[in-house]
Amino acid sequence: MDVRTICLGILTRADATGYEIKKRVEEGGYRPFVEASFGAIYPALNKLTKDRFVSVRAEAQEKRPDRKIYSITEAGRRAFVASLMKPLTEDRHRSPFAFAMLFADLLPEQHIAQMLDAYIAHTEQALAQLQQADAKPKSQREHFANGMSQAAYAATLEYLRSHRLNGETRTAEAAE
Amino acid sequence: MDVRTICLGILTRADATGYEIKKRVEEGGYRPFVEASFGAIYPALNKLTKDRFVSVRAEAQEKRPDRKIYSITEAGRRAFVASLMKPLTEDRHRSPFAFAMLFADLLPEQHIAQMLDAYIAHTEQALAQLQQADAKPKSQREHFANGMSQAAYAATLEYLRSHRLNGETRTAEAAE
DNA sequence: GTTTGCATGTAAACGGTTACATGATTGG
DNA sequence: CCAATCATGTAACCGTTTACATGCAAAC
User: Fold this and answer.
1) Residue A76 and residue A73: Cα distance in Å, rounded?
2) Per-residue pLDDT tens for A17-47?
3) pLDDT tens across B49-93, in order?
4) Whole-prediction pTM value?
5) C24 closest protein residue (CA to C1')
6) From residue A62, how far is each of A15, A18, A59, A67 by CA, in Å?
7) Cβ separation of A106 and B84 shorter than 8 Å?
């Protein structure tokens, strides 16, 4: 999902500025499977405006840049739906942690333990954020998508917790 | 994990040509959390050679380009371990499917069903591949990393299967 | 008094993908 | 007969990240 499509999606829910779009991507139900930085969002919004997929109205502010509030147009809605309808690209799950684990035999035992702790903590956080987002009233579909992510995170956590000590024990045995 | 690091990792296991590195990334335990294309691998190997992290020996072949067999050097091993030791970047899970599901209310019911079926089939395949890779003798660590991915996939599948019909029923009710 | 939040934008650099070029061999 | 496998490599292009520029106000 490129940033243009992400922007269109967010704008189907409500009008927003570039700044607000970033916030919405970070919070709630969009994370963890989409991302967008300012450097990508602002140019994307300009291109969408040129293409007439969104319209802008500026709101003057004192001592601050004007708020540029974007709304999706009918053409934008059609383009967005069209992009969801055409065959989706595959999920891409890049995990430096999992990759590192494959080579854990090259790493000090202590460091592996730290990495595991950090990863578990991080996954717990992500899960908590998803649960929080889920608490707010949502459409059934959003609930569904959120639940899918929660299921994956919860299973990962359970696996890590139950295999952590085992792994250490086995390594200790192997060291004898 | 950039392609250079991925190449180094593969080469810690065994010498390989660029072509073989690609194959090993696609098969077995590396998928689904790493990827690398030829257009990335060959330049990466050239850079690694320049940096003395790998060495090459060419094997002449008739009617085919020479096989260039790469070996990791001591310096390469150290660089690889160092890159695993420094703070890892976060996992990035980009899921066009999950994103599309968030906006499923904009899509025809039939199309959603198709997307779900395709995604379930795809996830089943990925899980099967992981289980297959796991059947071959592996180090404990590789088994651990593989198991983590399997747990996540299995949980996702279970979730999708158990919520699929519910989703359809609810939608049918909502349509009345 | 420093950090965070608000608010927009540009430009250079980066890493990677896609398509192309070349071409014999084997298997369906 | 066509597709896939083996085998390397280049070049154009793409989207994105990162760093920079600007600057007030409120909260801690």
Assistant:
1) 5
2) 999 999 999 987 788 789 999 999 999 999 9
3) 999 999 999 998 877 788 999 999 999 999 999 999 999 998 999
4) 0.90
5) B63
6) 21, 18, 10, 10
7) yes
Q: Do A59 and A20 touch, CB atoms closer than 8 A?
A: no
CB atoms within 10 A of CB B132: 11
Q: Nearest-CA residue to the C1' of C20?
A: B39
Q: Are A15 and A70 in contact (CB under 8 A)?
A: yes
Q: Is A61 exposed, middle or buried (0-12, 13-18, 19+ CB in 10 A)?
A: exposed
Q: Do A159 and B145 touch (CB under 8 A)?
A: no
- Residue B11 carries which side chain, given as an amino acid letter? L
**Residues of chain B where predicted confidence (pLDDT) is lower than 50:** 169, 171-176
CB contact under 8 A, B107 and A85: yes
In one-letter notation, the amino acid at residue A74 is E
Q: What angle do CA B57, B59, B60 make, to 5 degrees?
A: 140
Angle in degrees, 0-180, between the axes of helices A3-13 and A18-26, rounded to the nearest 10? 90
CA dihedral B165, B169, B171, B173 (to 10 degrees): 180
| Shortest Cα–Cα distance, A63 to chain B (Å) | 36
DSSP letter (8 states) at residue A110 = H
Q: Which nucleotide is nearest to B39 (CA to C1')?
A: C17
- What's the half-sphere exposure (Cβ side, CA atoms, 13 Å) at A128? 6
